[in-house]
Amino acid sequence: MRKVIIGIHGLQNKPPQKILKKWWKEATVEGFKLKKYKNKRFKFDLVYWADLNYETPENPADWDENNPEHLSAPYVPHEESEFNKVKDQLKKGVRKTIELGLDLIFLKDGEISGFDKMADRAIKRKFLDLYTYYEGDCAAKPGLNAKKEFRARLLKKLKKYKRRQIMLIAHSMGSIIAYDTLVEIGKKQNIEYFITLGSPLGLPVIINKILIEQRKNNIDDKVNSGNENKTDEDSEVIPPTPEAISKKWYNIADDDDKIALVNKIEKKFAPSTKNIRPFDISVRNNYIYEGKSNPHKIYGYLRSNELSQIIYEFVTRSWFQRLKDFFIKKFFVKENT
């Protein structure tokens, strides 16, 4: 069976689809080269939804920073540079304190707290695309429900490649759209690998939104029963891992990525019936443009050592190796357990 990598972009306006798709693939190939992998051809396609919220795409030729269509962060090859470094322990401590505070504000005994309206105002002020996704119509296409249309773009790609092995790579807000879509399709289609990059899925306010929709659609009852979707540590109800994922869910983030403020999400999502749940990986996002680093930028993630290895192994692994692994797991592993 042939393979395909499908990407879905994140927040804010983007360059034209053709250019963005080209840059995603170039950054991925650059990652192979940095790892000294033999260059391997692969099929890549991109789910593009920026046009639903922005009438005009960013223009790579526009150097006027005051122009709304100015492209502030294009794809550029990596250049070695020294990053400002903070002690890991200090960063982890600060991050853990913030995460605990957010949980206390937004989650209480598995119930949605009374701070939702405040959260919605904050989302609207800082992340208009996300607010539109949850609350209204597409900004550039009035009359079209944003949540429905954003997901429809991804569903169309998944149906197009339903006979292929799929790796779905979702960046930033794209990971929210992808997660919701995969939950929606259930077991109707297999997605072998789900990769979330710089994802805000761990934020309590996002988990609240997920739980509200799943309760409304009775997804909890369909996927989990009893207390299976609760953490071992407390009674906090957590959303399920999508049943559509057949092999792995890798959640990848740079510790300095402010969008992925809560970047350890393994315990934020209950395992699927296949016993799959997020596997967290910390990476160094090396994106720098005009002397400024951006640890959230997609191109730095795509060429990171860890993701390059995951993608390359997916691309190069033959059907014979897959068959061999299947028989080893089925016959030899069982005998030794």
Describe the structure.
- The longest helix is centred in the first third of the chain and has 19 residues, at 88-106.
- The chain has 11 helices and 12 strands.
- It starts with a strand and ends with a helix.
- With 337 residues, the protein is an alpha/beta fold.
- Helix content is 40%, strand content 16%.
- Helix 5 (146-160) crosses helix 6 (173-185).
Write the layout of secondary structure elements.
Blueprint: E1 3-8, H1 17-34, E2 44-47, H2 88-106, E3 107-108, E4 111-112, H3 116-126, H4 128-135, E5 137-138, E6 141-145, H5 146-160, E7 165-171, H6 173-185, E8 191-197, H7 204-216, H8 219-223, E9 245-253, E10 278-282, E11 288-289, E12 292-293, H9 298-302, H10 305-316, H11 319-335
Parallel strand pairs: 1-2, 1-7, 7-8, 8-9, 9-10
Antiparallel strand pairs: 3-4, 5-6, 11-12
Defining traits:
alpha/beta, six-stranded parallel sheet, 337 residues, two-stranded antiparallel ribbon, globular, 11 helices, 16% strand, 40% helix
Helix content: 40-55%
Q: Please mark out the parts with pLDDT under 50 across 5 or more consecutive residues, or reply none.
A: 82-90, 96-115, 220-227
| Computed CA radius of gyration, to the nearest angstrom | 20 Å
Strand order, main sheet: write it out: 2-1-7-8-9-10
